[in-house]
């Protein structure tokens, strides 16, 4: 839940439900998209989440080096 708490602190509360919009809120084991800039910011603060490289858009490499993303890559078997 560390990243969700970090996101809330940074102004993007993803854990609080907003049922009026059909959003039930995220939990610790949920997957969600994170923009490359926010991911890099989280990395710099020691809070970057794991990354599913096959689901990462190639344009993320304009902001985050591939070698850095590989360090956080989730291996799916």
Following the backbone from N to C, one meets helices and strands in this order, namely HHH
Low-confidence region ranges: none
Number of strands: 0
Corresponding CATH architecture: Orthogonal Bundle
Radius of gyration: 13 Å
Instruction: Please give the alpha-carbon distance between the first and last residues.
Output: 24 Å
- Overall geometry: globular
What topology emerges from the helices and strands here?
Blueprint: H1 2-9, H2 36-44, H3 66-71
Written overview of the protein:
- The structure is a single chain.
- The protein is mainly alpha-helical.
- It has a single domain, classed as Orthogonal Bundle (Multidrug-efflux Transporter Regulator, Chain: A, Domain 2).
- It is built from 3 helices and no strands.
- It has helices at residues 2-9, 36-44, 66-71.
- The relative contact order is 0.16.
Quick recap:
The protein is mainly α.
């Amino acid at each position: 839940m560390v990243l969700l708490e970090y996101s809330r602190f940074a102004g993007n509360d993803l854990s609080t439900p907003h049922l009026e919009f059909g959003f039930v809120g995220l939990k610790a084991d949920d997957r969600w998209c994170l923009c490359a800039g926010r991911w890099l910011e989280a990395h710099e603060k020691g809070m970057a989440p794991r990354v599913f490289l096959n689901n990462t858009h190639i344009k993320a490499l304009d902001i985050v080096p591939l070698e850095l993303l590989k360090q956080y890559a989730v291996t799916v078997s």
